[in-house]
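2024-03-11 09:14:02 DEBUG pipeline.ingest accepted 1 chain
2024-03-11 09:14:02 DEBUG pipeline.ingest length=142
2024-03-11 09:14:03 DEBUG pipeline.predict start
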Amino acid sequence: MTYDLVAQTPSAEDYRRLREVSGLSPKTQEAAERGLRGTLFAVTILFEGRTIAMGRVIGDGGCFYQVVDMAVEPEHQGRGLGKRIFAALMDWLHENAPKSAYVSLIADGDARHLYAKYGFEPVTPASIGMALWIGGRPAKGT
């Protein structure tokens, strides 16, 4: 199987589909369109010309960055695609973020082991992650 990693922001349709099939919370079309415009850097993975995975970096472009939307279609999981995406995001961050930048992410489940290999560590007990969901908490993950 040939997977092509491309530096591009996914379409709103691919974004919404990948979030849902990978177990992330669904987003409305409006939210997806607005949010994707705020992407600092993104990669997608194409299989036979179709987007089957993605990851993004968002933030203010100087002080704060966040890795979000790490998603791979279930039938393509377990092939190292998430690692390829994350490595590309990290390469971009190391090339573009200032030395004092704070890069954060939310690690779901075992993904924390991958992120730890790149130097990410829990911020507790000094800090604790907090969230507010406009319109109520989604039924699925974050």
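2024-03-11 09:14:41 DEBUG pipeline.report The longest helix spans residues 81-96.
2024-03-11 09:14:41 DEBUG pipeline.predict end
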